[in-house]
Amino acid sequence: MTAETSQTLDRGLRVLKLLADTDHGLTVTELSNKLGVNRTVVYRLLATLEQHALVRRDLGGRARVGLGVLRLGRQVHPLVREAALPALRSLAEDIGATAHLTLVDGAEALAVAVVEPTWTDYHVAYRAGFRHPLDRGAAGRAILAARQGSLIEPGFTLTHGELEAGASGAAAPLVGITGIEGSVGVVMLADAVPERVGPRVVDAAREVADALR
């Protein structure tokens, strides 16, 4: 902590992070132990966060993340989309395929930004807001590989025909960004992804990650 920071706010944010990392919630005692503060401080933090719907407590007294965080989360996608667009435009024009940024939304992959190339005669129609299971399609598989630590060199995932017949995809995960799971990829009408596409997608994912830091 420094003179310019708020200890109370810092503790409140740490409470939210701890609750976000658990599926079953935490008791006041558990939070007290994890934060290294007494129970009275935790009670006050929870009461304040509850007033803003950022935390809720169940009948058993366990604290969980509240629905209020969803309202805050809705404002994240536009910011992420704006930061990613330059890299996506460059990728789409360079490869001649539809480029996309995909983020995790629950158990699904959600395309939050899509850029189509301007010079091709045809390309795959892929729209922002498109959802699919994380275990189908290059975008979701790249995210899962990064989550499970199973992504190996050259650092990208290839698929064919998993989301649309005749379409192939390549995607690389966003790496080194706290609180965001996502990938950058391209989708094209082809039986196989050309060799140069995978490394180019990895570069684009790195550019997007740098823009979000």
UniProtKB/TrEMBL annotation:
One of its GO terms (biological process) is negative regulation of DNA-templated transcription. Gene3D superfamilies: 3.30.450.40, Winged helix-like DNA-binding domain superfamily/Winged helix DNA-binding domain. PROSITE patterns: HTH_ICLR, ICLR_ED. Residues 6-67 form the HTH iclR-type domain. CDD domains: HTH_ARSR. Keywords: DNA-binding, Transcription, Transcription regulation. Coiled coil: none annotated. The keyword Disulfide bond does not apply. Residues 68-213 form the IclR-ED domain. The keyword Transcription applies. It comes from the Bacteria. Transmembrane segments: none annotated. InterPro entries: ArsR-like_HTH, GAF-like_dom_sf, HTH_MetabolicPath_Reg, Tscrpt_reg_IclR_C, Tscrpt_reg_IclR_N, WH-like_DNA-bd_sf, WH_DNA-bd_sf. GO terms for molecular function: DNA binding; DNA-binding transcription factor activity. This is Transcriptional regulator. It comes from Streptomyces termitum.
